[in-house]
Amino acid sequence: MLHDNPNAFCQNPLDRAGVRRKDEAWVESQRRRPGARLMLVYRGEVLTERRPADSVIQWLGMDALRALPVSRELVFLGLWKGEPVFAVDASGAPDAPLSDIGTYASLRAAGPYLPAEELSIAGQAVWLLNWNLRNIHCTQDGDRTEPREGGFKRVNLRTGTEHFPRTDPVAIVLPYRGEEVCLGRGPHFPPGFMSAFAGYLEPGETLEQCGARELYEEAGLTVSKIAYRYSQPWPFPSSLMMGFLAEVEGKELTIDPTEIEEARWFTREEVAAILDGRHEIMAPPPMAIAHHLMKDWVAGVRA
């Protein structure tokens, strides 16, 4: 059984059909199946059906492709309950297509309202479509690439060079000392908003080393113990967040002002109040992995 993961974008129900999608004829045959579903994405936003209390993806049949004013490559996302699921990007259209039958919403805006499974599928779709659009040309010689395996690979047909979807690993770390936890605010955060500390993995690092380095560089904190909690796909545009709790040796802060504008220590009661909206400090939203690291720490989880 897979470890429980409470984070957004982590409940993807699709069978990605990794072996079968290598057969181009099989992928093409899935497009013609009567039960095939199509997700429409326009400039990073997904076509949804808004309802009084929630939302769902506005799934389309494959015949909807004929109504699009531009020709775009499809990506095959996988099989859901045995039926194929595709996505297409229509960002080249001058206006949002088919907006008369639904509402376009960003993943951040739709996150609290979409069912967890549909949000996860939408995250995969936006991620994969973005990667395909950014890799139309080969990085080695500039030749045009062609999609293969339903969009999970692109190939320079002249040289045979293969390109695969990129994932950027990020260590996000919640540091604590005794019964207090440290939160920080980056220059891009709104006033009053504080969160855990994060940074991209550098070449030759383990994720634990990355987390310890980021804490030291951003806040001057030295890690004595660090423990992995869970990961989260983060399609903005292509990160994988790796969440850690870290015990640190001391509480003295030395802040890197280019990365952190403010950092403070908070008690368990204060963090609980932040999460509940009873504090002047705003917490990361529930769709962010930092929110769940804070909840874990309040509940007594430690490195």
Automatic annotation (TrEMBL):
Q: Which Pfam families match?
A: NUDIX (PF00293), NUDIX-like (PF09296)
**Catalytic activity entry:** a 5'-end NAD(+)-phospho-ribonucleoside in mRNA + H2O = a 5'-end phospho-adenosine-phospho-ribonucleoside in mRNA + beta-nicotinamide D-ribonucleotide + 2 H(+)
The UniProt record lists the keyword Nucleotide-binding: no
Tell me which GO cellular component terms the UniProt record holds. Answer: cytosol
Give the EC number: 3.6.1.22
GO MF terms here are: metal ion binding; NADH pyrophosphatase activity
The record, for PROSITE patterns, names: NUDIX
Q: Which InterPro entries match?
A: NAD-cap_RNA_hydrolase_NudC (IPR050241), NADH_PPase-like_N (IPR015375), NudC-like_C (IPR049734), NUDIX_hydrolase-like_dom_sf (IPR015797), NUDIX_hydrolase_dom (IPR000086)
* Superkingdom as given in the UniProt entry: Bacteria
Could you tell me the keywords of this UniProt record?
A: Hydrolase, Magnesium, Metal-binding, NAD
The GO biological-process annotations, alphabetized, read as: NAD+ catabolic process; NADP+ catabolic process
Q: Which SUPFAM superfamilies match?
A: Nudix
Tell me which CDD domains the record gives: NUDIX_NADH_pyrophosphatase_Nudt13 (cd03429)
Ranges where the Nudix hydrolase domain occurs: 165-288
Q: NAD among the record's keywords? A: yes
- Please give the cofactor(s) recorded in the UniProt entry for this protein: Zn(2+); Mg(2+)
Question: What is the similarity comment for this entry?
Answer: Belongs to the Nudix hydrolase family. NudC subfamily.
Name of the protein: NAD(+) diphosphatase
Provenance organism:
Parvularcula maris
According to the entry, what is the taxonomic lineage of the organism? Bacteria, Pseudomonadati, Pseudomonadota, Alphaproteobacteria, Parvularculales
> What gene does the UniProt entry assign to this protein?
nudC
